[in-house]
Amino acid sequence: MKRVFRSTVLLLAVGGIATLVVTVATAGTARKHATIQACGLMPDTKTSVRWEQFDKPFLIKAFKAAKITARVVNAQGDPQKQKSQADQCIADGAKVLIIAPIDSGSAAAIEKAALKKGVKSIDYDRQVEGGVAVLYASFNGKTVGEIQGKGVVAGLKAKGTYSKKPVIASLWGGEEDANSFLFKSGVDKILNPLYAKGTLKKGPQQFVPGWDNQRAGTIFEQMLVKTGNKIDGVAAANDGLANAVVVALKRQKLKPIPLSGQDATVQGVQNIISGWQTMTVFKDVRTLATKTAEAAIKIIKGQKPPTTGTVKTKGRGPEPAYLIAPVSITKANWKVLTTGGFLKRSEICSGEFKKFC
Ligand code: BGC
User: Fold this and answer.
1) What's the pTM value of the predicted model, to 2 decimals?
2) Strand pairing class (280-282; 327-329)
3) Residue 249 is part of which domain span?
């Protein structure tokens, strides 16, 4: 009762001022009536912990610092939900949508409908093919793949298997994500010449639908069966897929093999320090969030946001882009993640992993 009363008083006090955010709390539920300037639309909570653990909080922080009223929501892998979240954002006054798409088709429709209402979009981390975004804010995806490919090669050399015609398997991301092809192109750039020379043997390769970590485990187990466990290294597109490989190897009582990842997650780093994963790719989402919030302000003011160049995005003209460089993380330098404040040492160095720190 007390709560409802307080909200009523607030509402009365606020009156018609639309810029204030008022939360009306009723028995256990909270509804937001807000006027916002920007919206962050995250894709899911399962394909990588990054969206909830890094992107969402860092975007919220960056918007706050940039003095933009904003909301960041997650569509839980449901394109319909992302569409209704976008609609709600526009209804609440958002002038910019920052969209990490689930698939290009649904996201392009969101962007086009938004533009009809004068709302501009930023493609966040993933390109929207056939979309109308005014900016693509991300990391250099091909470089991510190159770093992964080089990481697998370095792992083979360190293990002494590089000279023994090792079989390399690949778990690419979901085909509905344009990034998966960028990452693949980078890995291919490094590994294809080595396959062609016969230094490495090209093993099974598969895209993992929807980046589904569980599915990746099944796919990798099938790869093991198909090759009679003769897989000597894996180019896995992110830490979630890499962990599926680790779990499968452990279940089959097999030894660690060179294995790439991406996102610098706690789990990825734990797999690295315990010797099960060779490397991960650190994409500093803090920089991405800050640059994206700054770009959103420019867009709201009708100005052009800064770019590092343009990218080719299928189904549309050249897309202005702001691309950030990714960084390779191995056993040798993982501590930069904790000293730099991206991850907490206490999260990594807990339980069975304490002894590796
Ligand atoms: C992102 C990766 C992420 C993956 C799965 C990609 O588009 O760039 O950081 O691991 O999607 O969510």
Assistant:
1) 0.91
2) antiparallel
3) 141-283+329-356
